[in-house]
Amino acid sequence: MDSPYMRDYIRNFTLNNGPRGNQGYSRVLLQLFGYPGHGKSSFINSCKYVMDDGPYNVYAKVAVSEENPETMIRYAYKLTETITLVDNRGCAKMNKDETGEIYAQLGNFLPLDTKVTWHTEYKDMMEILLKTETQEENVDLIVPVFIYSAKKPIDPEENLGEIMLKAKQITGLIPTVVITRKLSEHLPDLQEKFRRMGVENIFPVENYTKEDHRRTRGKHEGILKCLYEIIKDVAFKMEETRNPSAEKIERKRILYEFAHKRDLEKAQERESRERARREELEKKLERKKGFFGLFEK
Length: 297
Fold this sequence. Notes:
The chain is of the alpha/beta class.
């Protein structure tokens, strides 16, 4: 598949072309999510570069490191008349607190172009979901795209498989995985691990950067192929009968259940810590009694 064909297909794609029409959707949101500093913003700049076929521009500011993420606001970048890229705030640790915000972003319950604040309480998630009742009807077809740098080995304690599954439940689509820094020696191992998680579409790419944006056929075709295959999947999904309103309700139900379960687990953890603290205190008192009992004898 040559670059001009793939670029034209992406540019000309419209949700109206399917056998069932747009079914109420107005655009496709490619929801980029993952760790900070793994290349989400650079991927957006690279996509714009290869699609515009003009000079390189910095649209999305790039993080200096994982410890100093640039994206705090959930920015949207229009790629074509139909396709929009969303640079969601990165998640430093895939724990229960931060993944809740990731899921809220994936479900499109947080406004675009607005600062994302991590919430840890059940009531905060409820407030986020309740606010959507007054928002306009969601007409975005959501596509999850997980960005991961091949420079970082997968931490077994952070259950990315569970993240992939939850993202599929929320959006109805298995996440596409884009592995940046594809020249890393860890690439084959990462690809195998993501396959074991049930991921079908894995695309290794090398992003263009402000410092290195010399055009190469390998970089161009790698990024174009990724976008092309994602949109081909969207076209395939649009052949099914879909209902944007029902899908939004289902996404909300999943987030309610997640927030409730998270709250119960945190309460159980607090209770366990308090029980352990009481038991340790009782042991100390027993030791003191035994010590003073020696003198009484």
